[in-house]
Amino acid sequence: FFFFFKQKTAYEMQRGLVGSEMCIRDSINAEYMGILKMNEVEAENTIQQMVNLIDNEAKESIEELRKKTEEECSIERENLIAEARKKLRMEYEKKLEDYRIQKKIERSAAISKTKITQMAERNKLMDNIRTESASNLTSQLTGNVETYKKVLKELILQGLLKLMEIEVKIRCRKSDLEIVKEVLPEVSLAYVNKLTTEVPKLKGKTIKPRINIDEVNFLPELNLKDPGMPSCMGGVQLRAQKDRIVCNNTLDERLELCYQGALPEIRSLLFPKKVTKQLAHSFTIISYLLGQ
Q: How far is Cα of residue 175 from the mean position of the Cα atoms in its chain?
């Protein structure tokens, strides 16, 4: 069996409400009617309150965004300033280091220049001392023939004892030829006496040394005018074993040996270390300042 129901209309359903359903319906209607009864002033006030609320919220949001933006801007500005300061500091330090290096180079160059000048002046002074010594020696021997003869005897004997040869050739200046011929016999005798008395193997033996004078090849004469030309103040050269052994016993050589031996003492007298250091320091400062 099938049952058919007729669908009720809204009016019919409304008429069929009972109990709590009717209470709900009545309250809704009352509220709805209350709203409708609101006057225009109240509506405007409500709308204004809503507008003010929205406006306040917008202002608060704007203020928060402004503060956040200012904080971020301040942080970014501080970072940029710190980075710029760091860059400037690095550039300044690099320039300062370059300046220091340049000043060290300039100071080192000034010191080197001062040392070179000081050494040149020292060498010049030492050369003057050598030249003056040679000039004084030449003047003393030139004006005193007997003294020069004695010096030649000693030089020839010393050279013979150094060579210890039986056959020796003597070379001298042409101007000294006669003096050498005059003193040679005496020197030869002294040489033989030295050998036979001081050399154990030659004691009691007869020795006849052959000491000759080279009258073809002479030593250069004294030359004070042209320093570049050969010059000899005096003395002799002794040669043996076909000129393979040479003993240079000229006055120039003896003076040079004396000069080299006395050089440390001469320097200590002329250039004391303490004074030299003080002068070098002063010259360095003056050269450095003049170069500025």
A: 56
